[in-house]
């Protein structure tokens, strides 16, 4: 009962995304299954920090990476804060838990010349689905939006008069992203073609049957086309988001502006992209220093 109430709480009060709610539910299920199988414990009152550490050690032994373990620990932290508020427990065992250190990974991105090849030389094909695929990749690279944000876009989110798109980000926070005039023309043509192919549809992107496009389909589209121009290991929509931020910074964009466009809650999340611009800095240094 409490677990169900917790999931409702993070969904409607904390406004976590459906993806995060599902992940937290899965994490809690795994944790309580571990307690039941390993220690025959089903009462939340019997859980202490030692048992939680034991669970985390078992995850490490299964070669679960530190980032995933931290996410599971975050789920438990949020759950115990909720239990304390509800009076279901008196102590929070998570206060004695130290999450494993996560090595900082620099965002992987596609080089600028490869994105030019993608949009100027690659043939996407003919027909509605081909044009839709191109628009999807261009929209990711033009705006830096997230996969879930693109999937849930509606026709009404595009403001052709102001050249902007409204997206619903994490925690259901709305933000406005500018769109390049040239791409706006492309987007308008796609919208007209879509409405002719599938009239009276609210969602901007549809599958080949006229239904709202889904995450896996978009991922596959992006993966396949990026595979034609780059050898980076992960060819996901998020790579285009990384590429957008990195290329903008390389061309002198203000980091605070990038933060707002990406929808980051803190500047530290955006600053990771500055590490990727070191090659650009080296180039400027070599050109400008008298002794270079």
Notes on the protein architecture:
The longest helix is centred in the N-terminal third of the chain and has 22 residues, at 18-39. The model has no long low-confidence stretch (mean pLDDT 91). This protein folds into 2 domains: 2-96, DNA polymerase, domain 1; 112-286, hpI Integrase, Chain A. The chain has a 3-stranded antiparallel sheet with strand order 1-2-3, with no helix packed on it. Strand 2 (164-168) and strand 3 form a beta hairpin. It has 292 residues and is mostly helical. 23% of the residues are buried. The protein has helices at 2-12, 18-39, 49-61, 66-86, 112-120, 128-143, 147-151, 181-197, 215-226, 237-250, 255-262, 267-271, 278-288, and strands at residues 158-159, 164-168, 174-178. Helix 6 packs across helix 10.
CATH superfamily of the largest domain: Intergrase catalytic core
Q: Structural class, from helix and strand content?
A: mainly alpha
Gyration radius, to the nearest Å?
A: 23 Å
- Average pLDDT level: 91
Q: Strands across the major sheet, in which order?
A: 1-2-3
The CATH architecture name of the largest domain reads: Orthogonal Bundle
The CATH class of the largest domain is identified as Mainly Alpha
Number of strands: 3
CATH topology of the largest domain: hpI Integrase, Chain A
Instruction: Count up the domains.
Output: 2
Task: Name the shape in a single word.
Answer: globular
> Any low-confidence stretches, pLDDT <50, length ≥5?
none
Head-to-tail CA distance between termini: 68 Å
One letter per element, helices H and strands E, the order comes to HHHHHHHEEEHHHHHH
- Portion in beta strands: under 5%
Biggest beta sheet summary = 3 strands, antiparallel
């Amino acid at each position: 009962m409490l677990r169900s109430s917790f999931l409702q709480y993070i969904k409607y009060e904390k406004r976590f995304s459906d993806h995060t709610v599902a992940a937290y539910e899965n994490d809690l299920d795994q944790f309580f299954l571990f307690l039941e199988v390993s220690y025959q414990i089903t009462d939340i009152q019997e859980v202490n920090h030692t048992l939680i550490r034991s669970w985390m050690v078992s995850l490490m032994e299964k070669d679960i990476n530190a980032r995933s373990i931290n996410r599971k620990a975050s789920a438990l932290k949020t759950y115990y804060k909720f239990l304390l508020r509800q009076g279901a427990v008196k102590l929070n065992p998570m206060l004695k838990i130290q999450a494993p250190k996560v090595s900082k990974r620099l965002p992987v991105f596609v080089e600028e010349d490869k994105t030019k090849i993608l949009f100027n030389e690659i043939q996407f094909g003919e027909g509605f689905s081909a044009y839709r695929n191109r628009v999807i990749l261009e929209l990711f690279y033009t705006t830096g939006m997230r996969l879930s944000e693109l999937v849930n876009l509606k026709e009404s989110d595009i403001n052709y008069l102001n050249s902007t798109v409204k997206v619903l980000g994490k925690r259901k926070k709305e933000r406005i992203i500018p769109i390049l005039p040239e791409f706006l023309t492309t987007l308008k043509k796609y919208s007209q073609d879509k409405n002719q192919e599938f009239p009276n549809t609210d969602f901007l992107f549809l599958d080949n049957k006229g239904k709202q496009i889904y995450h896996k389909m978009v991922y596959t589209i992006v993966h396949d086309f990026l595979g034609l121009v780059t050898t980076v290991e992960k060819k996901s929509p998020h790579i285009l988001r990384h590429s957008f931020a990195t290329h903008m910074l390389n061309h002198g964009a203000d980091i605070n502006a990038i933060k707002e466009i990406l929808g980051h809650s803190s500047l530290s999340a955006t600053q990771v992209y500055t590490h990727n611009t070191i090659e650009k800095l080296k180039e400027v240094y070599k050109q400008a220093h008298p002794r270079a």
